[in-house]
């Protein structure tokens, strides 16, 4: 059976989640307090409803408990976001993802029982900053405050060199998890594997070590 999603708040973030889930063939209920927003989504989402989700009875009447995953994408109104999340936790929704506006908001959401808190503006800022420092950084995934996974594009400076020659592990304390070459992907590459211009290298390590390696090698 198809998974059932509900997205609350149809601002920029919520709208793009709704559209992407629909594109992936999921069943999506789109909810907003604003009638115009809901009308806009009537033809896009599987269902669309006008509702103030800070009201427990309204939430229950949407049958929100039956959804596999609820995404709270209420932006600026932190109070509404927190209250909605609290109601969802109390009703017993199985999986709740919430967008946080700032670190304090994130802390409260974690405390009251959100399963996952996302911070899209901050995460995108980090990604873009890494991409500005080194244009060879293609993608960046923060694992914790200290550790990340980064996708780097190999340029002529590493062309033909093996991982042992580049000394990725000993000099930088980083591990190459995979090398993508065209459609091929080499998982856990051997130390004597050479890199070629255009390869995409997926590296895991501490942020400061990754940055050192980016600056020296890429
Ligand atoms: P973004 O930063 O992602 O664009 P916005 O703050 O612009 O987010 O949008 C958040 C949406 O959440 C708005 O469309 C707003 O009407 C909706 N919203 C705010 N409070 C509630 C609430 N209590 N119930 C339902 N939707 C709400």
UniProtKB/TrEMBL annotation:
Q: What is this protein called?
A: TrkA family potassium uptake protein
Domain (RCK N-terminal): residue spans on this chain: 2-118
- One GO MF term: monoatomic cation transmembrane transporter activity
Q: Which domain of life is it from?
A: Bacteria
Which PROSITE patterns does the protein's record reference?
RCK_C, RCK_N
Q: Which species does the entry assign this protein to? A: Alkalicoccus luteus
Stretches assigned to the RCK C-terminal domain: 135-218
InterPro entries, from UniProt?
NAD(P)-bd_dom_sf, RCK_C, RCK_C_sf, RCK_N, Trk_Ktr_HKT_K-transport
Q: Name one GO biological process term.
A: potassium ion transport
- SUPFAM superfamilies listed in its UniProt record: NAD(P)-binding Rossmann-fold domains, TrkA C-terminal domain-like
Which Gene3D superfamilies did the record assign? NAD(P)-binding Rossmann-like Domain, Regulator of K+ conductance, C-terminal domain
